[in-house]
Amino acid sequence: MAKILVTGGLGFIGSHTVVELINAGYEPVIIDDLSNSQHKILGQLSKIVGFKPVFYQFDLCDKQKLIHFAKSEPDITGIIHFAAFKAVGESVQNPLKYYNNNLTSLLNLLSVYSGESVDFVFSSSCTVYGQPDELPVTENAPVKPAQSPYGNTKQIAEEILKDAVTSGDAKKVISLRYFNPVGAHDSALIGELPIGVPQNLVPFITQSAIGKREKITVFGNDYNTRDGSCVRDYIHVVDLAKAHVSALKLMESNTFAGYDVFNLGTGNGNTVLEIIFAFERATGIKLNYEIGPRRSGDVEKVWGDVTKSEKQLHWKARLGIDIMMSSAWEWEKYLAENPL
């Protein structure tokens, strides 16, 4: 059974990926510093998979602790690197926090595992495209200047990984460029768990629906889109998690070598207002929202061409908007009755 290190494995995407790794016969080992997650998620995972995955709590920016970990877990065959700060707005306000955390953690991982035959899956983002010239955006689209420090950390990280493969410090690396993950596991035992005020749309919607937030602010209605609000490619987190298993399997085959990137999305774009209306349709709950000014760092519209992922990863997003919204709502209701 291949042992896979999952950094940030108690976070939103990480926890769902741990479940899918176990379902696929892998043995995940989690590192998480709990800066944007909770230890109780480990217990939630055990309810889903029947046992508690191996867990280490420390900050990947502490290189000595990572070195100690590597010695205590010498059989790691793959790494899925989620651990990073991810809020666009916060990164604009506090860029050094993002550059330090997101890049130092990656550099430490590459340094500690330098030259070893460890498959590496990197959690990248469609933010590397900036505002694309053509839509849907393909993996070959020119990388534009990042719209936020968060997006810039993903661009820089991809450059670091390509250079690491060229130099031989890393053997096989796949960067998965996510679009907008939403939803929750169908058990309603894990989902997006923002610390403090949510930075992403869907948890703000669900918290508003349940009464935690007074109203939702739509940042801008004067963009060049169908209804004036920003367009994103929303993808169910379970579909996204399964793509990481597909990436590992591709690297385990003899057909892959070096470095490559893949878009992970549905291939369709929805506006912010369309997501609000989809939630209302899926749950029967009327939301309180208002139109506010544009938010610094936001891209007007982006959605992905996922042809390459379908052909080479043999992966395709299968869960639609209604399931994304209803599963997110079931998770929010679970939290209201079972606070973590």
How would you characterize this protein structure?
- The protein is of the alpha/beta class and 340 residues long.
- It has a domain at 3-184 and 235-265: NAD(P)-binding Rossmann-like Domain (Rossmann fold, 3-Layer(aba) Sandwich), CATH 3.40.50.720.
- The protein is 40% helix and 17% strand.
- It contains eleven helices and 13 strands.
- Helix 1 (12-23) packs across helix 8 and helix 5 (95-112) runs parallel beside helix 6.
- DSSP strand tally: 13
CATH architecture of the domain at 3-184 and 235-265: 3-Layer(aba) Sandwich
End-to-end span in angstroms? Answer: 31 Å
Order of strands side by side in the largest beta sheet?
3-2-1-4-5-6-11
> Strand count, sense and closure of the main sheet?
7 strands, parallel
In round numbers, the mean pLDDT is 96
> Beta-strand percentage?
15-25%
Fourth CATH level, the homologous superfamily of the domain at 3-184 and 235-265: NAD(P)-binding Rossmann-like Domain
Number of helices: 11
Spans of at least 5 consecutive residues whose pLDDT stays below 50 are none
Helix content: 40-55%
Element pattern in H and E: EHEHEHEHHEHEEHEEEHEEHEHH
Q: Specify the overall morphology.
A: globular
CATH topology of the domain at 3-184 and 235-265: Rossmann fold
Rg over alpha carbons = 19 Å
By CATH reckoning, the class of the domain at 3-184 and 235-265 would read Alpha Beta
* Assembly classification: single chain
Give me the secondary-structure category.
Answer: alpha/beta
